[in-house]
Every structure is written in structure tokens, then in C-alpha cells.
Specification:
220 residues; single chain; Four Helix Bundle (Hemerythrin (Met), subunit A); mainly alpha
Length: 220
């Protein structure tokens, strides 16, 4: 394969659950109904994002609506898990379209989750959620810029990928239903600074990698 071949559909690295996830996808991709196409699964993220926003708005009065948010997260996980797999299995050929639309809609989905939490949060935490949206977006931007420079697409940070993040979201939703948001004035700032520290580590790691590649190319 030429080094200039587009590799946006080939994710580098692994997460904690990668092995289980790959086996699950391989087992079930051939059993999906033939009328379900890869682009159908990709576009479904719009529906799941709208569902999260609606349920989060309702959750301002009744936190039990967060169960529905978790259901939307699970649904988005399944469609996101199989959209690229269906394309590869059926040789659809929508590699570059899939790369663009899948990750653009992932960004919309991410925004819907953060905005939903901001709606139900106690007063005084709004800017923390704005900051978390900026930081989480920066993780994505770093990944895309690194891919443009290396043609190696990495979406796993410190062994954590989208699947693990979805599980954390579901656990958080469950805690919100059972315990409410009374502890958020303490926990939200801690989470914000943890995300920011992780971003700095990622930037430093990527900076060193690209610097090393440039120096090697210079010597060659």
C-alpha cells in the first residue's frame, strides 16, 4: 500500500475494550438487514443527538429523563460501531465520505451531551461546561491535525476511546438519577481540570512525535 493512500478508515492504537468490540462487530456485521446501508447508520447520529437534547431539556424537571439520554448513547454506539463495518463488508466505497460525515456528526453528538449537562447543572457552572466543550473539541482537532501530518488516525487517548467515554456517560447519567447534581459544584471543576491536564499531555506527546518525524526526514 502506498504511503500516500488515505487511511482515515484505519484507526491506530487500542482502547481497553477494543478486543471485545472488534469481535462483537465481526460477529454481527454480516447479520444486519440488507436494506440498512452504511450512510443510514451514519445519519442516525442526528436523531440520537436530537433525542439527547429533548430528554435533557425534560430532565430539568424530572431527572428520570436521563435514562432516555443513556438509551440514545447506546443507540449511537451501535450505529457508529457498524456504519464503517457495513461499508467495508459490502464494499460500499464511501471511505472519505464516511470519514468526514461520521466525525462531523460525532462532534454534533458530543455537543448535544455537553449542552444537555449544562441545562441540568446547578447555577454557576455554565462556563465550566463551555470549557469542557472547548477542551473535548480540542481532543478531536488534535487527532485530525495529527492525522493530516502522519496519515495515522488515532482516536484513543491513554487507552480510552469513544466506547469507554460512552460507558462513563451512562454511569454519570445513572448517578445523576440516583444522587442528583448536588455534588457538581465540587466534581465538575475537578473533571474540567483533569480534561485540561490530559489535553496538555496529549499536545506534548503529539508535538514530540511530529518533531521527531521532521528531524528524521531532515536527516534523510
Amino acid at each position: 500500500m502506498s504511503k500516500n493512500t488515505f487511511k482515515g478508515d484505519q484507526k491506530m492504537g487500542k482502547s481497553i475494550l477494543s478486543r471485545w468490540e472488534n469481535n462483537f462487530r465481526k460477529r454481527w456485521v454480516s447479520r444486519l438487514p440488507p436494506w440498512i446501508e452504511t450512510w443510514h447508520l451514519t445519519y442516525m447520529t442526528l436523531a440520537w443527538s436530537a433525542g439527547i437534547l429533548l430528554a435533557s431539556w425534560k430532565a430539568r424537571q424530572d431527572l428520570n429523563w436521563m435514562w432516555f439520554v443513556s438509551l440514545m448513547v447506546i443507540a449511537q454506539y451501535l450505529t457508529d460501531l457498524f456504519d464503517g463495518a457495513v461499508g467495508r463488508y459490502r464494499h460500499t466505497g464511501l471511505i472519505k465520505w464516511g470519514y468526514y460525515m461520521d466525525h462531523l456528526l460525532d462532534y454534533f453528538f458530543q455537543c448535544s451531551i455537553v449542552v444537555g449537562y449544562m441545562w441540568i447543572a446547578p447555577e454557576g457552572l455554565t462556563w465550566y461546561f463551555v470549557g469542557m466543550l472547548v477542551i473535548s473539541s480540542a481532543y478531536m482537532v488534535s487527532s485530525f491535525l495529527s492525522f493530516a501530518a502522519t496519515n495515522e488516525f488515532e482516536i484513543y487517548f491513554f487507552g480510552i476511546g469513544p466506547t469507554e467515554i460512552r460507558i462513563l456517560v451512562i454511569l454519570l447519567n445513572t448517578s445523576i438519577i440516583l444522587l442528583g447534581t448536588v455534588k457538581w459544584p465540587i466534581t465538575v471543576p475537578i473533571f474540567f481540570w483533569t480534561m485540561l491536564a490530559g489535553l496538555f499531555v496529549l499536545i506534548l506527546k503529539t508535538h514530540r512525535k511530529l518533531w521527531r518525524l521532521d528531524m528524521q526526514a531532515k536527516q534523510d
